[in-house]
Amino acid sequence: MSSGNGQQQLRKPFPVNWLLRLGWIAVLAYIVYASSRLNVSWDRLVAGLGYGGDFLSRMVPPNFSRWKLLLEGLIESLEIAVIASTLGILLSLPIGFLAARNMMPGWVSWSARALIAICRSFHPVIVAILFVKAVGFGALAGIMALVVASVGFIAKLFAEAVEEISLKQVEAVRATGASFANVIIYGVLPQVLSRFIGFSTYQLDSNLRNSTMVGIVGAGGIGGTLFAAFQRFDYDFVAAILLSIIAVIMLGEYVSGHARRVFE
C-alpha cells in the first residue's frame, strides 16, 4: 500500500500479539505445573521403556492355539457392534429429526438436543459399567452402552444435516396438501439420506472398535478375553488377540469406507 509521500509501507507478516504470547506462556507454565503434580518424570518414562521392551518380547511369537476361544470373542464383539448400530440407527432417525430446529417447535428440539447431549456426555466404557451394574455381565450391557453412543453421534449429525436442507423442496411438498409424514418422506429425507447413511456406516465402524473396549469391564465380546489373558500374564495369547482385533478393525474400516462411497 502506498503512503501519501509515495513511500511503500511494508506490513509485518505476523504482527506481534502480546496477549497471545502471554496466553502461550500461561499454557506452558500450567503444563509444567500439572506435570509436577501428576508425578510425570523422565525417569519413569525411561524405566517404562525398559519394562515395555520386556513386555513386548514376551508377546513374541503370538499364540493362536486357542483359536476357538479367540473366534468366539470376535464373533460376539461383531454381533454386539451390529445389533447396537442397528438399534442406534433406528432411534437416531426420529430423535435427530425432533432435534432439528427448523422442523420442530423450540421446546421439542431443545428436549431432543438435551437427550443427545446426555448420550454424548460419557465414554462408552463408563456407560457400559453403569449397564453392567444394572443388567449384569454379558453382551446386553455392551449393546445398550453402544446404542447410547450411537444415538449421541448419529442423531446429532443428522439433526445438523436436517437444519441445512433447502426449505423450498419442503414447502413444495406441503403445497400439494401432503401429510406431515409425507412431507418428511418426500421433502426432507431425500436431501439428507445419503449423509445419514454415511453417519451410520461410520458409527458401525466405531462400534466395532468400542465393542472390544466395553468387554474389558464385563460387557461381552473379545475385550473380556483380552482382560483375562492379561490377568494370567498370558502375553503370547494377548498378542494373538490384539492382532486379530487389528485385522477385524481394518476389515471393518474397508467395508464401511466402501459403503460410504457407494451411497455418496
Tell me what the structure shows.
It is built from 10 helices and no strands. With 264 residues, the chain is mostly helical. α4 (106-120) packs across α6, α5 (124-135) packs across α6 and α6 packs across α8. The longest helix is centred in the C-terminal third of the chain and has 35 residues, at 180-214. It is globular and about 70 Å long. The mean pLDDT is 83.
Strands, helices and their partners?
Blueprint: H1 18-37, H2 42-57, H3 67-99, H4 106-120, H5 124-135, H6 139-163, H7 167-175, H8 180-214, H9 222-231, H10 235-263
Helix pairs in contact: 3-4, 3-6, 3-8, 3-9, 4-6, 5-6, 6-8, 7-8, 8-10, 9-10
Q: Concise description?
A:
The protein has 264 residues and is an all-alpha fold. Helix content is 77%, strand content 0%.
What are the defining features of this structure?
about 260 residues, mainly alpha, MetI-like fold, globular
